[in-house]
TrEMBL record:
A monovalent cation. Ammonium or potassium. It is an enzyme of class 2 (transferase). This is Type III pantothenate kinase. Gene3D superfamilies: 3.30.420.40.
Length: 266
């Protein structure tokens, strides 16, 4: 059994899943999953323990030990915190820190320096390819930052774009101007040409997000865009390119990576 953890810039997402090999399990088939804000990270051991012991008991004495595979882009302090929280479980777990590598699970990393590619971007691309193999893909993650990456049908990770996320764009306008208000995304779709300032700000920022993704899809000749992240639901309705809106694409990639014999962690 696996504990998968994606520590992003705002939230820590997690999932518990069976190992893929020999269990009839596909990437993204969870026993349980959830997310907490950074401020609530100390709640994680209780959330994990609520599911791990019950599964271990039902699996029997011969069950394989739990592995914890973690992608962390939230810095050294978060790494130390997660290390401590995993050690507090009974039995304690030692994390396998997921890192980008030149090749993994049929995905070849063509970043100029493969190790410098963010672990979350590499995992998301791996998850996208696991869900939609042999397709030219754009992988867009709309979080604190928005990343838009291209994966070839042959499994080449070609690189991508990084831009401020939707929330960061909205906040930057409020902080950097004298008269523009702070706006937050809401469920109502802003018109392309808004008749009030708040909707104009939201429309502009959403259009910037969608425009970057559409440009990537056109430049890559993508057959499909896989869209994930906290703001993805606000951006997806603006896209004309074929797309899937998914939760936890990084966790899907970690799940797929766990079955790859060439997986290297630190």
């Amino acid at each position: 059994m696996l504990l998968l953890v994606d520590a992003g810039n705002t939230r820590v997402k997690w999932a518990i899943a069976h190992e893929i090999a020999g269990a009839g399990t596909a990437p993204g088939d969870w026993i349980a999953h959830g997310a907490v804000l950074h401020a609530d990270v100390k709640r994680l051991p209780a959330l994990w323990a609520a599911h791990l012991p019950a599964h271990a008991a039902s699996a029997g004495a011969g069950a394989a030990p739990v592995r914890a595979i973690v992608a962390n882009v939230a810095g050294a302090a978060m790494r130390a915190e997660l290390d401590s929280l995993l050690a507090a479980l009974a039995p304690p777990l030692r994390p396998e820190w997921f890192v980008s590598q030149p090749e993994l699970g049929g995905l070849r990393n063509r970043y100029r320096e493969p190790a410098q590619l963010g672990a979350d971007r590499f995992a998301a691309a791996l998850g996208a390819r696991a869900l939609a193999p042999d397709k030219a893909l754009v992988v867009a993650t709309c979080g604190t930052a928005t990343t838009v990456d291209a994966v070839g049908a042959d499994g080449e990770f070609l690189g991508g774009m990084i831009l401020p996320g939707l929330g960061m764009m909205l906040s930057a306008l409020a902080r950097g101007t004298a008269q523009l208000p702070q706006v937050t995304a809401h469920g109502d779709r802003a018109p392309a040409f808004a008749d009030n300032t708040r909707d104009a700000i939201l429309s502009g920022c959403l259009s910037a997000q969608a425009g970057a993704i559409e440009r990537a899809c056109a430049a890559h000749g993508a057959e499909l865009c896989l869209l994930s992240g906290g703001a993805a639901g606000h951006v997806a309705p603006l896209l004309s390119a074929p797309h899937w809106l998914l939760d936890n694409l990084v966790l899907v990639g970690l799940h797929a990576a766990a079955a790859a014999p060439e997986l290297r962690t630190c």
